[in-house]
Known about the structure:
Radius of gyration: 24 Å
Mean pLDDT: 96
Bound molecules: copper (II) ion
CATH topology: Maltoporin, Chain A
CATH architecture: Beta Barrel
Distance between the termini: 43 Å
Oligomer: single chain
Low-confidence stretches: none
Number of strands: 31
CATH superfamily: TonB-dependent receptor, beta-barrel domain
Strand content: over 45%
Shape: globular
Number of domains: 1
Structural class: mainly beta
Number of helices: 4
Amino acid sequence: MTVAEEVTEKETKGEVKETTEEEIKITRQIDVGEILSNLFPEINHIRKGGTANDITVRGFGRDNINVLLDGMRIYGACPNRMDPAIFHMSTRQVKEIQILEGPFDVENQGSLAGVVNLISRDPEAGAGGSVYFTGGFFNYIHGGFEAYGGNDRVKVLTGYSKQFSHPYKSGEGKRITEYPQGTAAYKLSELDHTAFNIDNVWVKTVITPDEENTIKINYGFDEAKDVLYPYLLMDAVYDRTHRINGEYEIKPLGVKVSAYWNFVKHDMQDRWRKSSSGWSRGYMMRTLAKTKTYGAKVVKSWKIEDINLKTGIDAYLRNWKADNTLMNLDNRGMIPDVDIKNVGIFVKGSKKIDRFIVSAGFRVDRTKSEADRNALGTANSTLYSAYYGTNYSLSKTDTYPSGNMVVRYKLDKRSSVYIGFGHTVRVPDPQERYTALAKPMTKPNWVGNPNLKPTKNNEVDAGFEYYRGLFGIKGNIFYSDLTDYVYLYKLTTGPKPAQSYQNIDAHIYGGDITVIGMLTDTVSVEAGAAYQRGKKDSGNYTDSDLAEIPPLKTRLAIKYDNGTVFGQIEGIYASRQGDVDSDLQEQPTKSYYVVNVKTGFNAGNRAFIGVGIDNLFDKNYYTHLSYLRNPFSTGTKVPEPGRFVYMNVNYRF
Ligand SMILES: [Cu+2]
């Protein structure tokens, strides 16, 4: 067998998508979630404000997908997901993003429906770097530098970036701060409050004592201040993150050892909203939240005969604590100092048989979730028993296997078809099981369900890739049968109604297609479409549609690139979403069509200047994920930005 015939990692999986810094560099570079949602029709962003967009993949969000930074687990501290995992790496540090869709990851616990891995740039030898600046509408600025240096043995890269903006305006000319109404409305003096002010610092060191060993150490610090979230009732005063991860690879042994630690502290308040009026402390409500995650992993790759094998063991601890004050209610321990401790082992292998590549993976996990009753305050200490009686426990251990099999048939070197099946499991997150938030008067409480069972996914995926000359087409379909899917609902059995979570059976299915082609030496076209649908199969419901399932979305981009000058016209269309869950008061979302254009010029290898206009026709539109689902009320719908002109300048030295 020659090297060229080796099975690649990609061929052992289902649908894999990738994007690189080259694509990111020519966007307005606000945040990674927004960029992915723009590039891939099956990825959608949850628009809460000017930045920090969370994502869904094929209709799966929250902990149903794993979002990793250089393979490291990291979780947001905010109980309202103001700081999703994907927000914790600067767009400027990202070299590449790998998206593995479907239930085909056994290397990480809980990749129920997919995994998104942000990979940071490595330093190069020698000395160099770059300075960059992006500026745009609404006083958006983003600037910083990156510098690297080193020899064959030790290389270091360090970077800094600063992002700042005022609230953007929608296509109807209103600032996003003008959308919340009633007591959630921003004070008149705050309508032009800073929308985000973010500093990121990172240092990455790569040590290669010889050709056989590599050590990588990556440290990052982020401070996001004054981040506005009109989608919610509060805004972030600050969100501070430290993360460090290290990796040691011994190539001749095929061994990789990695370890990580990260910590996020988050302070959100309603101090810029009308609801805080009259409170001398400056806020009516506030949540101070902390989370830390640390873990380690050892992986060994083997080759036995012609079978590629990978085995591994990993463990992590995720701790989450949030203290809330609401009027005079002491809701300490709204997330009551929950520990999730996991240990897992896995094995995966692949073998080439004639034109077939057969791959399989298997994993077993043991996960303990435990909340601390003593962390609870006076207002929320009796909520679990008020709603779930005495028959519950604040500690639960779940042990479960997961696995998958993929069979790929190679039509030729590049083209193939595949079918795969996977069984995956994820434990309820600390919020779903243990949230405890008492609200005043007739306002519904928010309480977790300590009896929740882990979600199980049995999913079939099938797809093809076909390349001929300068033309390629890729397609995938999936059907996910979900048991004990964790779903928001209106709990009416306690002292007063509450929002809580229940296990339901459900299914989500859909597909996507991508076409790429070179029309001439300089002109290329890229087209994509994705559709997904979600239905409930059990539970106490009147509407069988699952909430927060994005509608059909398509993208068409035509690019011109001669190496010096490039230009791109891109159209994005999303159809109306009328398949909504009225049990959660979900509302239909209108269709939209937007056009984005950009052009750029490379001066030699060193300087790049680009200009872009997003939403060229200044359309006023909303995505389907533009407001918060709650069985009692509909949150503020946050429109997408109106016409947004930006400029990118990059200089390498
Ligand atoms: Cu928050």
